[in-house]
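Following the same procedure, backbone shapes were mapped to integers, as reproduced here:
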Amino acid sequence: MDLETRLLEREQYGEREGRKEGRKEGLEKGRLEKGRREAAKANLQKSIQGYRKFGVPEDAILEQVLADYSQYFTPEEIRAYMKK
């Protein structure tokens, strides 16, 4: 009986430590993704401004930034940035 109790305690300890480690990794990944998204947002705005500066039509700008930034933003978000 004592052996079973110790094995159960060891298993529970391992689960707790695993959860702690998982949370830590998740927070780090979330911070990294947030930083990437913020950098992409700044680059998106610069791209839109640059295309407009050279007189590129709005439809062509939309098509290009959708292709370049669709991994970071939805089409609705990109259209909203273009309206600013």
Remarks:
- The radius of gyration is 24 Å.
- The chain has a mean pLDDT of 87.
- The CA atoms of residues 3 and 18 lie 22 Å apart.
